[in-house]
Amino acid sequence: MRVLAVDPGLTRCGVGVVDGVPGRRLSLVEVGVIRTPSSDPTPKRLVAVEDEMRQWFERHRPQAVAIERVFADTNVSTVMGTAQVTGIVMILAERLGLPVTLHTPTEVKAAVSGSGRADKAQVTTMVTRLLGLDTPPKPADAADALALAICHVWRGGTQSRLEQARLDVLARTGTGGGGIPRRLPRAGAPAERRLRTAAAARSARSAPQSRPSPTDPGAQPR
């Protein structure tokens, strides 16, 4: 499985591509950082991120996308930029029909180092070992993206398969992801029959019962 992982950010956006499957050795495909100058207007910076990110998708053709989940922070501008870049990556992945999974920083640290409280230096060291790199990836955004990709290979593969199975079931039943049928079913004949049967039963119970005639052979004497 080839995973494209993104550590979103507007000034520095870490991107890493890793090949691997659970239980086997992982291999680095490419790692880098997309940078935009803080002096540029936000719309221009977002377009620059989209342009470069699109090239990553076209160049590597990943099978899955992993993004670090955004958390609220005291620095609102940083959170906004991170969320905006996350949206760009999600749109690109969705247009290509690729599954997207969000992983928290704690999940990534635990998957790579065995501890959800590991610091950046520990995570970088483990990423270097797991990928068999000669030198640690720099800057930290690049190392974080690779750690995210490793986490997804080990943990997100199962989630992706479950999500794909769910989408397959929805496709067979004619229901979209939002739970809205693509084609309305025909009027439910079984339900209509049940209603008619219930109405007939009520009518039969409410109808007066006629007494047998004296001349009726089956009549019983009083």
From TrEMBL:
CDD domains recorded: RuvC
Binding site for Mg(2+) 2: 68
Cofactor note: Binds 2 Mg(2+) ion per subunit.
Pfam families recorded: RuvC
Main location (coarse class): cytoplasm
UniProt-annotated location(s): Cytoplasm
Enzyme class (EC, first level): hydrolase
Keyword tags: Cytoplasm, DNA damage, DNA recombination, DNA repair, DNA-binding, Endonuclease, Hydrolase, Magnesium, Metal-binding, Nuclease
Catalytic reaction list: Endonucleolytic cleavage at a junction such as a reciprocal single-stranded crossover between two homologous DNA duplexes (Holliday junction)
Cofactor: Mg(2+)
Domain of life where this protein originates: Bacteria
Low complexity bias spans: 197-213
Binding site for Mg(2+) 1: 7, 141
Region named Disordered: 172-222
Active site: 7, 68, 141
Gene3D superfamilies linked to this entry: Ribonuclease H-like superfamily/Ribonuclease H
EC number in record: 3.1.21.10
Family the entry assigns: Belongs to the RuvC family.
Function comment: The RuvA-RuvB-RuvC complex processes Holliday junction (HJ) DNA during genetic recombination and DNA repair. Endonuclease that resolves HJ intermediates. Cleaves cruciform DNA by making single-stranded nicks across the HJ at symmetrical positions within the homologous arms, yielding a 5'-phosphate and a 3'-hydroxyl group; requires a central core of homology in the junction. The consensus cleavage sequence is 5'-(A/T)TT(C/G)-3'. Cleavage occurs on the 3'-side of the TT dinucleotide at the point of strand exchange.
Oligomer and partners: Homodimer which binds Holliday junction (HJ) DNA. The HJ becomes 2-fold symmetrical on binding to RuvC with unstacked arms; it has a different conformation from HJ DNA in complex with RuvA. In the full resolvosome a probable DNA-RuvA(4)-RuvB(12)-RuvC(2) complex forms which resolves the HJ.
Name assigned to this protein: Crossover junction endodeoxyribonuclease RuvC
Organism taxonomic ancestry: Bacteria, Bacillati, Actinomycetota, Actinomycetes, Micrococcales
